[in-house]
Amino acid sequence: MKKRDHQDSCSSSYGGDSGGPSSYGKAKVVWEDELDASGGMDELLAVLGYKVRSSDMADVALKLEQLEMVMGQEDGASLSQLQNDTVHYNPSDLSAWVQTMLSEVNAPLTDPAQSLQTDLDFSSLQNYVNAESKQTQLRFSDDSEYDLSAIPGLAAYPPRSPPPPPMQQPEPPPPMQQPEPPPPMQQPEPPRNKRLKTAIGSSSTNPNLPSSSSSSSTVIAAPESTRPVVLVDSQEAGVRLVHTLMACAEAVQQENLKLAEALVKHVGLLALSQAGAMRKVATCFAEALARRIYKIRPQDPLEATYNDILQMHFYETCPYLKFAHFTANQAILEAIGTTNRVHVIDFSLKQGMQWPALMQALALRPGGPPAFRLTGIGPPQPDNTDALQQVGWKLAQLAETIGVKFEFRGYVASSLADLDPAMLDLGSPEMETISVNSVFELHRLLACPGAIEKVLGCIKAMKPKIVTIVEQEASHNGPVFLDRFTESLHYYSSLFDSLEGSGLSPDSEDMMMSEVYLGRQICNVVACEGPDRLERHETLAQWRSRMGSSGFDPVHLGSNAFKQASMLLALFSGGDGYRVEENNGCLMLGWHTRPLIATSAWQLSPTVGNQ
Amino acid sequence: MAGGSEANVNESRRVVPLNTWVLISKFKIDYKLLRRPDGTFDRHLAEYLDRKVPANANPVGGVFSFDMIINRGTSLQVRIYRPSFEQEPHQLSITDLEKPVDADIVPVIVFFHGGSFAHSSANSAIYDTLCRRLVGICKAIVVSVSYRLAPENRYPCAYDDGWTALEWVSTRSWLRSKIDSKVHIYLAGDSSGGNIVHNVALRAVDSGIEVLGNILLNPMFGGVERTESERRLDGKYFVTLRDRDWYWRAFLPEGADRDHPACNPFGPYGKSLKGINFPKSLVVVAGLDLIQDWQLSYASGLEKYGHKVKLLFLKQATIGFYLLPNNDHFYTLMDEINSFINSDVNSNSE
């Protein structure tokens, strides 16, 4: 290419530059049309979302040509096959994509009975119904098939009825039906409880909340920090409210508590004049700021049961948790393939809402379901009830009704850092396919130095086939309080906005509990510090970096998962605003263009072993 | 004639740089996967394959962006691009995003992305990049509109959304130029976006909203008749008549043909533009675009009605030439757009 004159016109300061159109003509911008900022990638294409090495460009072009030839006619058989049967992975990697596409066309169609693309939930039912028709475009006018309550799996538990008669199975009955579980299934609970009761909450509280984080766990900075902001309508009063909130946070940052106090009161007043999401967000943030200013102790983090209940309401109100479970389950399904035995370790079992859907899909697997073992981890209960066992019991009942061999074990731990793989009674990789699942749990480890490293090491020691992680897509763990405040303000504004879009009555229990659920998170992000500040959300980019340097390789979630997640969202009223996005093989769910949660999947790097 | 025969491939390879060829060919293949013979569209796969970028309130290259939902009913969203401020605070606060413009004259470009009415959105990487460049080049604020797409949303949805966006922009106090407390609005768009520009400008006539200029970049027009350029260039440079027909069928009302005025504004059912207050237009035509005859007729049609038109004909340009800054046409185009907009700025401030 011809050389061009330099002058980066984009960065010239606004309004103060060297004149008009004619001078621009001379001042052409230089963009490297050759490499080489990052590993020989073509920079121009990289900006547009495609990673191609300059040295591969000609080869990619050739393959695109071939692919075009092969696709041929607009209504030909090859095209049809590519349209209907191909699952895409990582569309950014052009080289890999075009290879895959070419091999799809050249390879004969695999026998559907052997297909590993087990679909979840309604989709599998849908395929069953539309077996003959090639109709992949679903018409949502037919409501009956998409009635959420009718979809097995999403209805969390079997109806309360007398216990089912013993199944006609050669295998011994599931351990849940016996009061004293047989030894291989479970170890006696009480001693373990005591051993693991290292309470994080009982560590010394922090009376002096510094304005900046004192956490010494490494904060991994995202390679390029992006602040996606989505606003909804600009109203004068709303702007004043935000302005005041920001000013208050800034005063707190500067430890000007007198000013902060005055401002937080003002915010309270201003919030009253708002309606809807804005009012709720402002109120939550004002309360959190007040707690910080007045050094009111944070809410007791050990109220685990209460939080579980809150989360269930949140689960009902909006699709974030469902998306998390759905996409994680999809990744698990794709990873376990034709194995006979699956062992899932759930880092926070809570009410076990993720597992009915997976079990349902396992039950429908062509060739029959694998045995399903679930190890659910959860915190100790203040009243010493065995919440984990109760969940396990319910899941066992479901398993029985759908014909899946099921084993459950509960593992009580105050912190994931207390986990010891030896206690989990893991089978060898030849015997069982192990899957580790963490939904909104890992970020809490960042409150304690060394914890995340320990847990990642622990995961590696488990030798899982797949690790599924869902985290909030936000930068709430930066070192500067004001930045955290700003970020979380944007984040929770979008979240609350999406709640509003859900169409639920603002007075409904689900709605109110969901707001309390989110409000507690906000309080934690804003009012807490040190080991008490558990909601240390980090972005996908940061998690990627961490996982990559800890010995994990990404496993890509493909277009199949994307498509089904999108269809799932469309079922939600107010589903209009939700967006699924593909990001280098991970899936993100957002409200309009603001990503809010991200699902990623991982496997051990081949060279792992140097833990 | 099928687009994809070896001769055609060699032809298109000769006239564009390799990475451009790869990019446009990738789109071509993707889009073919998405268009089903029965007229339906694989929207989920489209969303999956489309490379998107988030808005970024952190300035990059002197530009920051943020998204805004301007109509809850239709979830109409725009992405706003602004030049970064001279004194940058530690981090742009949410209240800075809509800070009133500070100069005598700030052009506001309402941009409609292309994609033949069915593809892309404001957060598509190709369009996000283009809009960012426009900010720097024209010293303008750009408002990129994610209008509703066909075939799920046919005519006139895209135009309705365009109109909503125009109205919204015109009523933002923070977008007003200091010199006259008015928003200085230009409409711009490529492909289907160019078509939307025309139709929104038409609706704006007599509405009290002043549009200072239209910029139509390879605008998408057509008609029942097959023109000479269509016959000559069918399948030669990435685009086939067959796919053009598919998109019109997807956008136009069911049962309408390509002489519908949305497709053929100066055709048998077209409206007269005589004596109306229509903005000046910059019409950019790529010499290797098969629909150029329609685009050229559009330009001469405007002229016949006495409206000001600047025609930029780029003989060796293909579709999508403006997506990558690796060719002369790109720079020529940017110069022209800049002149088109800022000649007003200069004459106003004299």
TrEMBL record, chain A:
Residues 1-25, 152-220 are annotated as: Disordered. GO terms for cellular component: nucleus. It is found in: Nucleus. A motif (VHIID) lies at residues 342-346. InterPro entries: DELLA_N_sf (IPR038088), TF_DELLA_N (IPR021914), TF_GRAS (IPR005202). Residues 42-107 form the Transcriptional factor DELLA N-terminal domain. Its main location: nucleus. Residues 390-422 are annotated as: Leucine repeat II (LRII). Residues 311-376 are annotated as: VHIID. Residues 9-25, 202-218 have a biased composition (Low complexity). Keywords: Gibberellin signaling pathway, Nucleus, Repressor, Transcription, Transcription regulation, Ubl conjugation. It holds the Pfam family DELLA. The keyword Kinase does not apply. It comes from the Eukaryota. A motif (LXXLL motif) lies at residues 442-446. The keyword Ion transport does not apply. GO terms for biological process: gibberellic acid mediated signaling pathway. Residues 159-190 have a biased composition (Pro residues). Residues 527-603 are annotated as: SAW. Belongs to the GRAS family. DELLA subfamily. The DELLA motif is required for its GA-induced degradation. Transcriptional regulator that acts as a repressor of the gibberellin (GA) signaling pathway. Probably acts by participating in large multiprotein complexes that repress transcription of GA-inducible genes. PANTHER family: OSJNBA0084A10.13 PROTEIN-RELATED (PTHR31636). This is DELLA protein. It comes from Trapa incisa.
From TrEMBL, chain B:
It comes from the Eukaryota. Its main location: nucleus. It is found in: Nucleus. One of its GO terms (biological process) is positive regulation of gibberellic acid mediated signaling pathway. The keyword Membrane does not apply. The keyword Nucleus applies. The active site is at S191. Belongs to the 'GDXG' lipolytic enzyme family. This is Alpha/beta hydrolase fold-3 domain-containing protein.
